[in-house]
C-alpha cells in the first residue's frame, strides 16, 4: 500500500484547531462538561479524518488526542472539571520530558519530526530542541497558573485564544536561529 500524499496545510490547521473551536463554543453554550464531551468527539473525528487522508497520525496530535480522551473521560465520569484542565499541563510536560529524555540519550526527536521540512546543522537542532523543551515547560506552568487562578470560562478562552498566538510568536522567534543554523541540502552532482 502506498502512502497517501500530505494533506493541504489549511485542512491540517482546521483538523488541529477544529476541536478547540468546538470546545470553546460548546463551553459558552452548554458548560464545561458538555464541552468536554464535544471536545472528545471532535478530537476523535479530527484524528480519524487525518488518518483517512494520510494513513498516518502525527505524533503530537495523536498524543494530545489520547490525553483528551483519557482526561475528558475522567472529567465526565467523575464530574470533576479539574481533569480536563490538567490536560494541557500534562501534554506539555510530557512533550518536554520526552524531548529532554531524547536529548539525554543524544536523540533529537524534533529533528526526526521536522527533518523532511527543515535542514539544520547539528547545533541548530540542539538549540531548537532546548528551546522547545523550555517552551513546553513554560506552557505547562502557564496552564497551571491560569486554571488555578481564573474562572473556567477564562481558562477555556485562554486555551483557545491564548495558547495558539503564544505558540506562533514563539515559533517565529525561532526563525533567526533556524536561519543562522541552516544546513545546505546535499547537491546531487550526478555521480
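Q: What amino acid sequence fits the structure above?
A:
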Amino acid at each position: 500500500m502506498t502512502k497517501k500524499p500530505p494533506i493541504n496545510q489549511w485542512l491540517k490547521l482546521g483538523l488541529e484547531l477544529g476541536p478547540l473551536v468546538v470546545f470553546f463554543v460548546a463551553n459558552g453554550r452548554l458548560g464545561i462538561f458538555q464541552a468536554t464531551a464535544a471536545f472528545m468527539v471532535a478530537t476523535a473525528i479530527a484524528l480519524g479524518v487525518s488518518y483517512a487522508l494520510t494513513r498516518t497520525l502525527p505524533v503530537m496530535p495523536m498524543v494530545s488526542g489520547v490525553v483528551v480522551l483519557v482526561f475528558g473521560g475522567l472529567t465526565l465520569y467523575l464530574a470533576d472539571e479539574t481533569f480536563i484542565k490538567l490536560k494541557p499541563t500534562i501534554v506539555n510536560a510530557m512533550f518536554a520530558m520526552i524531548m529532554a529524555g531524547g536529548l539525554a540519550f543524544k536523540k533529537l526527536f524534533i529533528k526526526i519530526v521536522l527533518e523532511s521540512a527543515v535542514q539544520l546543522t547539528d547545533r541548530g537542532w540542539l538549540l531548537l530542541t532546548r528551546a522547545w523543551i523550555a517552551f513546553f515547560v513554560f506552557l505547562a506552568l502557564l496552564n497551571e497558573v491560569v486554571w488555578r487562578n481564573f474562572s473556567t470560562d477564562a481558562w477555556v478562552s485562554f486555551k483557545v485564544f491564548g495558547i495558539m498566538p503564544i505558540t506562533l510568536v514563539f515559533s517565529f522567534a525561532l526563525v533567526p536561529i533556524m536561519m543562522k543554523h541552516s544546513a545546505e541540502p546535499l547537491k546531487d552532482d550526478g555521480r
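Q: And what stands out in the fold?
A: The chain has two domains: 1-78, 81-184.
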